[in-house]
Each structure stands twice: as C-alpha cells, then as structure tokens.
Amino acid sequence: MKLVFLLLVCFSAIAAPVKTPQVEAELVAERSALVPGEPLTVALRLKAIPGWHTYWRNPGDSGEPTRIEWRLPRGFAAGEIEWPVPSRIPVGPLMNFGYHGEVLLLARVVPPADLPAGRPVTLRAKANWLVCEVKCIQEEAELILTLPVARSAPSDPRWGKPIADSRARVPVAAPAGWSFGARGEEGGASLAIAPPAGVELKQAFFLPFDEGKIEPAAPQALARERDGYRLTLRAAAQPVGQFERVSGIFVLQEKAFTVDAPIMARFADLGLALALVLAFGGGLLLNLMPCVLPVLSIKALGFAQGEGGLRHALLYAAGVLASFWLLAGLLIGLRAVGSQLGWGFQLQSPVAVAILAAFFLVLALNLSGLFEFRFAFAGEPGGQFLSGVLAVVVASPCTAPFMGAALGYAVLESGWRAFLVFTALALGMALPYAALAAAPGWRRYLPKPGPWMPRLKRWLAVPLYATVLWLGWVFAQQVNFLHEKNDAAWEPYSAQKVASLQAAGKPVFVDFTAAWCVTCQVNERVVLSRDDVRAAFRDKGVTLVRADWTRRDPEIARALAALGRSGVPAYVLYMPGRAPLLLPELLTPQRVLEALDG
Amino acid sequence: MKRILLALVLAAATTAWGQKVGQPAPDFTAPDTQGKPVKLSEYKGKYVVLEWVNPECPYVRRHYNSGNMPSLQKEFGAKDVVWLTVNSTNQSSSEFKTPQEMSKWMSEKGASPKATLIDKDSNVGKLYDARTTPHMYVIDPQGRLIYAGAIDDKRWATEAGTKSANNHVRAALGEAMTGKPVSVSATSPYGCTVKY
Fold first, then answer.
1. Residue B26 in domain
2. pLDDT tens sequence across B8-30
3. Which of A64, A243, A584 sits opposite B190 (nearest CB)?
C-alpha cells in the first residue's frame, strides 16, 4: 500500500479539488512534472454550476476579479494571471465581464534551476472569487498541487490540452499587418482598426482593462472606413481618472488582441470655427514664407506704378481660392478612391518637385535680372486671376513642410469640413495682397519708382534660390541620386519589422519623416542626432527605425493613419511593458530623454 | 503652438464628457420604511450621504456585520450629516425586501441612517446611475455631488480587515467639512449589481 502511494507521488500530479455548492476549484498543470528552471503553466480551474459565473480582471459594472495568492517553495516564482477572453454577461441594464461554467486562469510558475530531482514539490495558493447568478457569493479556498520533479515532462494527459486551448484564448499583441489607433469623440472615443489587406471584420468588440473608462453596457458600433474600421466607445457615465488611452482587448470571433492606444485629439473637437480661424491665420502666415514673399512683393511693387483696384483684388482672391479648391478636391478625391495620401502629397512625386524647382529657378533668375520678362499676364483681364494661381503654386512647397500637421487633421475630416478649412486657408492667404490692391491709400508711403526697385528685386531673389536648392535636394533624395551619408544607426521601416521587434520585447523608436518636411529635418538634426540622445537610445537598446515618406508609400500612410495622423513628422516609442508613446511634432532633447526614462 | 492646441482639445474633450461629480445632485422623492415621503431637496444646506443597500449582497453584509456601515452612520449623524440608505432592488426581483423586512434588518444590524428609502421601482437608483451595493454618493450643502463611488479601497476583505480600509466617504466628508477640496472624488464602486 505504501509502495503504491509512493509510485503515485512520483509519476503524477496530485491536486486536491475544493468544492462549494456553486464551484469546483483546483490547481492543474500543463505538464505532468516540474523540470528545474523551466517555466510550467499552472491553471486555477474554476467550474461554476450552470447559470453561475465568475469574473474577468475587469468585472464590468459590478462583481470582483478572481485572485490567486501563491505560496510557493523558496526559489519559485509565479507570474500574473493570464486571462482568457471573457463573455459579456448582461445583468438588467448593466453589464459584467466574466466566465460562465468552467474557466482555466493561467499562470507561469518557474521552479529554481537547482531544484533537486526525486522529491515531489507542493505548490500552494489561496484563491478567492465571487460567483454570481442573481445572488452573489464570495468564496475562497486553499489549493495545493503536488508535482514530481523530472528532467523532462510530457504534456499532462488530463489537463495538457484544456490548458493549451485556454492559452489560445488569451489575447496577445496583434501580429504584423494589424494596427490600432484611438481618437477622442463626442461623448467618448473611437478605436481605429486597420486589419491586414483582405481581412474583413464582421463582428468585434472591445473590453477595457480598467473600470471607469468606458460604459460597459453601451453598444459599440463597428463602422467600415476608408482605411479600415472604426469602433465607437462611450465614455463611462461616472468616470474614474482621465480617459487618455484605449487600453484593453479587441475581440473578434476567432481571436482577440491586446490594444493600448493613446487617445488622439480630434480636430473637430476644437469646433469647426476654431479650426477655420487657425487655417485663416496659417494662410496669412503663408505670405511671409520664403517661397511666397519675394514673388508677392514684386507683384505689390506693381501698385507703385498705378496698378490695382477692387476688381484686381477680387480676381486675385478668386485665383487663390480656385487653386486651393483644386488641391483640396484632388486630395479628397484621390483618398476617396483609395489612394493612401496625406498632406504633403504634392511633394511626393519627383516630377512635381523637379517642375517646381525649375519654376522657382526661372523666377529667381528673372528677379536677378539675368533675363527679363514681365509677368506676362499682369494688367490683362485674366491676369489677376492667374497671379492668384501663381501665388498658390509658389506657396505649395511651403504648405507641406510647415502646415502639414494642421492640414493633416483637415484631411482626416469629412469632405465638406476639409473644404471649408482649405477655403479659410485660401482666404487668409489672399487677404494681404488683395487688401493692398483694393485700398490705394497706403501707396502714398511707397517711395517713387526708381533705381531702388531693381536692387530690391535682386535681394528678393535670394530666398528663391534657397527654395530651388532645397527642392533640388528633395528631388535628389527621391531619385536616390544623392545618398545622404547613410546613417547606419537607422533601419528602414516595415510594419513587419516593428511588430516582430515588439513581439520580441525589444524597444523600438520609429521616426516618420520626409525630405520635404522641414520640421522633420530640424528634429533629426537638432535633437535625434545629439550625442546624449543617441547615447540614451544605445543604453536602452532601442532599435531606431526610420519611415521615410519622401516618396509615396501606402504602408507608411496606413501606419500614420492608425496613429491618427495623416502627415509627417510623427515619432513613436515602443518600450516593452509600456504603452506606445506618441511624441510631439516639435521634439526637444529633454522630451525624448524623459520618454526613454519612462 | 501644437502643444497649446492639444491641451485645448484635451480640456474641451474632458469637460464635454460630463463628470457627474461637481454637478448638482438630481432631486428625488421616495418613501421611507414607514411610507413617509422623503425629499432630497429638503436637506439643502446640509451634507447628504446616499448609500445603496441590499441585505442579500455579501458585500453589504460584510459592511453591516463588521459594524462598519452602522458606525459611519452614527459618526456622521452626530455631525448633522443626513444619511439616506436606499434600497433600489426592484419589487420584481427575488431579493426585494418589503418596508417591514427592511426596517427589521436595519435595526438588527444597529443601523441608524436618517431614513431607509424603499425605491421599489428603482427610479432613484437609475436617476443616480447606481451600479453596485454598496454604491456611495456624497452631496454638499449647495446640493452638488462631491463624491461618487466605492465605500473604501478594500474590495476584498474579511470583516475584520474592513476596519483597516481607507474609507473614501469619511475622507471626502472630512475634507469638505474643513473647507478642503475633495482629493478622491470618483472611484469605481464595487459590490453586487443593483437588482434593477
């Protein structure tokens, strides 16, 4: 008899199930023995009688998560509970998240590497749970599981498969090809989901890790969008803390992924009125840009020679307006038919950049007096309209680098809102020149036409030459003609690479950039290439990835859309065990170092 | 500039999402165990505590059996705080208690609220969006909600452990009555579902 007992101890696991009227509880292991130093999955098995349920880590409107307190022998370690996907359990108007019937809550138990073989080991845990039907009962149990120690261990014949099945239902980080982003909405937030190409979503829902963020019982509508899907989440009626991240699990019929997305501000939240004011101000500023100021100054000098008038002003404004509408229409139209474009698209084609560079060169040479042609259309009836068009053409390289972020938001908005934002931008841009043309009073203060005019023109040519150089450099980047001293510290972007690095628990920093984006260039030179910043990246073992959007790239456009951006720059830091962090568009070394230190 | 913009947006977004705490507490009238109507707005000028109760709920029983809830009621009753215990268990639920049963249970437990309200149609519970028993609300003399959520920070405790918990209601009342802002004004309530 004694011998039989010993044999049992040596060759199989012994557990002592605890039974209450509602629940059967026990510890079970995936393998039939402990192997020194090798992690073993141990599960708390709770089997509730029909009609009763236990709870998930966030129990929903009421209830209580099941808890395990391990009492392990010296040298052993146990991980957090890994929770399989729960069910949504409606209770009247409220909602709980939990498990009907049987559930296996998993935990990794790691025995010490020097565990002596031969003597069985007993794992102990105190578990407590709340089990409810209509009534709720708090229960707890002291559970034990005795396992033999061996050099290798086969899968447990009884529990190996159920534990593996349960693990398959534990949400994991989404594999490459999936991306998630969140943005604030009226009354809550929404989760943008970009599945891999060809994947259709029919049913999906989101469950939050934390209480007091979203309303557990609120319906979640899944809507198809251009770049994927969007799930609306209603904010908790009685919020606890700030709702800053959409953090939880995204559940599909077959699988579930963990999601942790910072909630991006939505431009519409500003109110359309404020968006329009900002665009109008941006338009005014455009007049001062180096690519625009010289050209408009020359035109304005024409007023000194008696040109101008209200008709002149209106025609010019109409030209500006029509050109911006054309650009906006082109962008919105191309996105509607599925092109992955964001603001700045006009500089993503090397042909467009080359034409613009040539155009600026002609203007600059003209101002330098190397050859002389009058702006052909000045004074003629259609001429003022065309000078408005010209103004937008010369402004177009400048809107991308400086106003990318603001216009990017507009692009993400619905068609008519984007149109209004572009209109405000156009009116802002047209105003100063049109006002000068319409109100002749100010001309008194101009000196009489004289030799100062050609001299001024020559000086005004300088910023135009600079624009030509810059466009030439962009063009060279696009055609790979001029390899910038290739920075070995950075790896080229692919969604796959970022996802696999993340899955491997490695820190990653992604720089979304473009040669034509001036802000990006400034950030890279002034912040990202500083010695202390580089050293910090090195110390933390961060893989640096550069997503170069100088030319069109649908993969990068999708990744940007998932971040809630439609233009560059964008900077994301993925640190293992922490939520991905979107850094501001204007970087400072302090901000980057802080982000790395967490 | 971008940063200011973002801050503006975040500020707009958070206020738009309506923190219940800080807003006026909606008025209601409900009968006590004697059938006498009790109207919240009659207590304007005093601090009011609303406590959701259900004798069938183990969380509620823990707070009553340990003496925790009755002693809070006594402590703040002495400080002229109006304590209203509300049972919103719907009359259609198997856990519904008649006014007589409720009155008897409360006196057995040594409870001494200003009144125990029988909300048999669950209207007051829905008005306050009460989710659990217990679910606690504190209202200031101006009639504004200054706390909503759990009674304390020990969701899972033995009767003895209940005493050592950090009691959010006591903290909120203590701060408010000494003119300080309430530092923890919203928490996740815990307990059994209100049986609507």
1. yes
2. 333 333 332 333 788 899 999 99
3. A64
